[in-house]
Design a protein that fits this description.
Strand content: under 5%
Distance between the termini: 38 Å
Number of strands: 0
Radius of gyration: 18 Å
Largest sheet: none
Helix content: over 70%
Shape: globular
CATH topology of the largest domain: Hypothetical Protein Yqey, Chain: A, domain1
Structural class: mainly alpha
CATH class of the largest domain: Mainly Alpha
CATH superfamily of the largest domain: Uncharacterised protein YqeY/AIM41, N-terminal domain
Length: about 150
């Protein structure tokens, strides 16, 4: 599982003395621990599941992309590069993301399978996509594709 992979990666990066990777993986593990604690408070004694962990990783990447834009606008290229390096480290733990073309094909097939025909079916379609393609599809992009096909 991804939790074990993160723990093993932390140990190997500590051993390799890769400071950037160590700090990035520790940030991931801290975010995971925070979400586990929040889940336990809500009655989920086992913490978050794999799909929620993948969502944490995607959120971390999105945050870093926003930071890169800000740093580049203010000509802080060294900080933008740091954020880019962290994105590369986080991506190691994500499954290969579907291409836009493959995602569009999957969305079209799912819409047909579900019999979705209008925007009222948007929520049901997006829920099915999240269930079938966790960590492999950019759901922000998928949302606009679904909306275009149903609208």
């Amino acid at each position: 599982m991804l939790r074990e992979e993160l723990a093993a990666a932390l140990a190997s990066t500590i051993e390799a003395k890769d400071a950037r990777a160590v700090s990035t993986i520790r940030l991931i593990l801290a975010a995971l621990k925070d979400r586990d604690i929040a889940a336990r408070d809500k009655g989920n004694g086992q913490g978050i599941d794999e799909s929620e962990l993948l969502q944490i990783l995607r959120t971390m990447i999105a945050q870093r992309r926003e930071s890169i834009e800000t740093y580049e606008k203010s000509c802080r290229m060294e900080l933008a590069q740091q954020e880019s390096d962290e994105i590369d480290i986080i991506k190691r733990f994500l499954a290969e993301e579907m291409s836009d073309r493959d995602a569009a094909k999957a969305i079209k097939g799912l819409i047909k399978e579900l019999g979705a025909s209008n925007l009222k079916d948007m929520g049901r379609t997006m829920a099915a996509l999240r269930e079938r393609y966790p960590g492999r599809m950019d759901f922000a992009k998928a949302n606009s594709v679904v909306k275009a096909q149903l609208g």
